[in-house]
Amino acid sequence: MGQLIKSFPNGTFLEYDRGSFDQWCVYLTDVDGKRKPPRDMDYFTDIKNLADQYGVDKVYEDYVRVYDLTGKEVSSAVLDTISQISQGYQSAAIQVDILFSILYMAMIAEEKKRGTRLGKRIKRLGIHYLLIENKPVNEAANFMRGMGWRDIDRLCVERGF
Questions:
Q1: Which of 11, 33, 61, 142 is a good FRET partner for 148, with 20 to 30 A between their CA atoms?
Q2: DSSP, res 59
Q3: What region, left, alpha or beta, does residue 4 occupy, with left being phi > 0 and alpha being psi -120 to 50 degrees?
């Protein structure tokens, strides 16, 4: 059992625990007790489906609100804000709360990586590429593989973050 970060009304919860290279791996445990680290492909698919249903602008703007609040430490105020944001998605509120909480935790993990030069911007670039540039999920989840940090940084700066 790792460090519990957030529990949801449907019985699922999120925690940090040891992953392959640090203790900031995000784990989602579902109602059946199945625990797994969400992968980029998983939550990129979910966020793309959400944008198809609620509009790219709304989903991206809500994501950027969370992005702007993200630092190096988990904040209960930010987790509460994510829950409030998710209420704007009516019947999908719990799923959106989980999705944005996963993204929040993943961005914190990026901020905590030793020697990072990109931090949370790496996640924003992927979400921007997916939603604003309307790229397929697989491409958005994988296009930075093998790129150096300077190239990724340049892509971020070109997009204003």
A1: 61
A2: H
A3: beta
Q: Is residue 80 part of a domain?
A: yes
Angstrom distance (rounded) from CA 94 to CA 156: 30
CA-nearest of 119, 152, 125, 153 to 140 is 125
pLDDT tens for residues 31-80?
999 999 999 999 999 999 999 999 999 999 999 999 999 999 999 999 99
Residue 30 lies in a domain: no
Lay out the sheet containing 25-29: strands in order across: 3-7, 13-17, 25-29, 35-36
142: part of which helix (H) or strand (E)?
helix 137-142
Tens digit of pLDDT for each residue in 100-110? Answer: 999 999 999 99
